[in-house]
Amino acid sequence: MTMINFDDPGFPWALLAIFLGLRLASFVIERLIAAQAKPSPAHDGLALAPDDPARGEEAMPPLHAPADAETVTDAPLTPMEAQIPISMADPVEVEETPGTVDETLLADDAEDVNGRPDATVTDSANADAGMKGEDGSRGEFRLWHELLDSAIIAVVLVFFLIRPFLLQAFYIPSGSMIPTLQIGDKVLATKLTYRLHEPRVGDVVVFHAPRKALELNGQRYNPKQPTDYVKRVVGTPGDRVRITYDGVYVNDRLLNEPYVAARPDYEFPVTSGGDFSMRLGAGVANELLPHIQGNELLVPKGYLLVLGDNRLESHDGHVWGLLKRDAVVGKAVVVFWPLKRIGFIK
Q1: Residue 319: Cβ within 10 Å count
Q2: Per-residue model confidence (pLDDT) at position 134
Q3: Best CATH choice for the domain 169-344 from the list 3.40.50.1970, 3.40.50.300, 1.10.1200.10, 2.10.109.10
Q4: Which of 181, 215, 266, 315 could be joined to 177 by an S-S link, Cβ 3.0–4.6 Å?
Q5: Looking at the annotation, which residues are catalytic?
């Protein structure tokens, strides 16, 4: 059975592409349905004028009498009438009855002068009727679009903003951090903290396990899909660290560690007899040799030394050596699951 790997770098892009594809397909389908449901313009049964654009015809030009045609009149014109141009003739005065046409239109604007219902009012009513038939489908599309838009925004926020720069959730599969973290705990790690300052002694950090750590633990190393560990910082660049049966000494001071399950049963990096610790994995002692001064390890620049709180059962820096600073993902700050264990990590 194939499991979805949420840590795969390509997963957010694939999820975003799916939601964007659904959103585009939904938009196209809605447009097609709207185009099919659009009502055709209704005719009122009146004959179109000869020069109506809908018929693509032009009216016949008015007939003009030939220039040489004789004018037939019922009575001969007097000399004075013959000298007055027709265009300058006095207009015929027509007595109008006040308040007839205009008042009728204002009193009942649903009908035109011919008694026919007004075209604008009728067309609007038909359009509203057509819209009512589509309200159900449009409402469904609107809800579907809102859901897709919300999903797209959520993917962008979680995978491209919150997770890379702010917070990320992690699952604790082992008991190396007991009693601070139990098997099955889910924690949130903040990535913003170490953009403001460097890790400090006592911080619980999540990091990509180095190759040596995975190989010594019998795990497969894959830089494209890193395996994450969680441990506590006990040494930062410039610190002198040594571990005895009493505990961890940093710069000649014994750390106060109330969070550990028990004191260590080993010495690091060298024993009291001057030999390398028996816990060091193959080749690790040679890597640490340039940084060992007397019986202490001087943490070099760009590296950290991390240990598990369950010192007797932790596969950590006392076995596989130093951790590169660049491998740190973030600081574990809170347990959010199970509910009975919700609280800040100390």
Answers
A1: 19
A2: 52
A3: 2.10.109.10
A4: 181
A5: 176, 231
